[in-house]
Write a structure and sequence with these properties.
Mean pLDDT: 86
Distance between the termini: 47 Å
Number of strands: 5
Strand content: 5-15%
Low-confidence stretches: none
Radius of gyration: 24 Å
Length: 353
């Protein structure tokens, strides 16, 4: 594991360094060469359920009227259906222009500023985060966490909205429909060959039920390990490219909000634990209402200076791994600073926050 950690650290640093070099030389930040491999690999993986389905149908067709062969064929067809990646549907309450006309006016201005597609919907949730997602229908949605929104000032809110909107301009593979579907199919392959697990509530232990014979265990574990390895490799490729996409979203977002606002919003992600620490202190007995989101947001807006500095120091020790879609926050702040964008394209005073 130490070797992998060192390799990840070196790889993550190289991605950051390459982007800063491109910025300093006035060059366009190029896509990683691995992106074409990711697309091709995704197509190959997504084709496997159809190949399995064709194999099952062939066995049924050529094996007819043999009952055993028909049963085997039907089992293979059922396996192919199971392997297919389910469509990612929008099953959350989604607010639209009719619900939030003021916010969508701002989002339209951000999209125009970044030459990005228009946003179609908003998800509101109780988390300390924000996200961008495009559904198979083509619907583009931004997710906004109430705690995060309350912790940010207008400049920082603009920075976060611009950052998330920018993800629709740089083809982030972590948000790509093709790549996400391929990962789901790989996960289904692994589940087929992994023995089922049952959670024992009395002992709190997880029990693996493997009633396969010795040959079945050897064959199943071998094939399962192969797909686990493919999944791990694919995730590394996607996450490495996604780090680059995060940097690009930061740069594009800063062009709309200004670099200082983007860096300030990033710093507040480092002290997120303060919000949840405050939550642990809250006791609710039903006698009076409690504005829990405001309490948690205030912990971020008005942090204890010493605790805040300790969290920043801890963040400075973060390894530069590529096992996450997001690079270390301090790397992201460095890239935003290197890109410039001191002047915001949009004026926060033009909007009702």
């Amino acid at each position: 594991m130490k070797l992998i950690t060192r390799l990840n650290e070196r790889f993550g640093t190289a991605i950051r360094d390459k982007i800063i070099t491109d910025i300093s030389q006035g060059s366009h930040i190029q896509s990683l060469k691995i992106r074409k491999v990711i697309k091709l690999f995704s197509i190959v993986i997504l084709s496997t359920p159809y190949l399995v389905f064709a194999a099952g149908c062939s066995i049924i067709y050529f094996g007819y009227p043999s009952i055993p062969l028909i049963i085997i064929g039907l089992i293979i067809v059922a396996t192919a259906i199971y392997l297919r990646s389910p469509k990612h549907i929008n099953d959350q309450k989604t607010l639209t222009r009719t619900d939030l006309p003021t916010l969508f006016t701002l989002l339209d201005d951000i999209s125009n500023s970044l030459s990005a597609p228009k946003i179609d919907g908003i998800h509101l949730n109780s988390r300390y985060n924000a996200y961008a997602v495009e559904f198979p229908t083509g619907q583009r949605v931004l997710g906004i966490g109430a705690i995060l929104w309350g912790a940010l000032d207008p400049n920082e809110r603009l920075a976060v909205l611009a950052h998330e909107t920018a993800h629709f301009t740089n083809n982030d593979p972590a948000r790509g429909r093709l790549e996400s579907a391929a990962l789901m199919t790989l996960s289904n392959w692994v589940e087929i060959f992994d023995p089922p697990e049952v959670f024992d509530h009395e002992t709190g232990a997880t029990i693996v039920i493997d009633d396969r014979d010795f040959f079945g265990q050897i064959l199943g574990n071998s094939i399962g390990s192969l797909f686990k390895g493919l999944t791990y490799m694919f995730e590394r490729f996607i996450f490495a490219d996604s780090q680059r996409s995060e940097y690009l979203a930061d740069i594009y977002g800063a062009s709309a909000s200004g670099a200082s606002a983007q860096q300030s919003a990033l710093k507040k992600t480092i002290i997120a634990p303060l919000a949840y620490e405050e939550l642990s202190k809250v006791y609710y007995d039903g006698s009076r209402p409690i504005s829990i989101f405001e309490i948690m947001s205030k912990a971020i807006r008005e942090p204890d200076p010493q605790v805040e500095q300790n969290l920043y120091k801890e963040a400075a020790k973060t390894l530069h791994t590529v096992d996450s879609t997001h690079p270390p926050t301090r790397f992201r702040m460095e890239v935003v600073g290197a890109a410039g964008n001191e002047n915001a394209a949009l004026d926060i005073h033009d909007y009702d926050w």
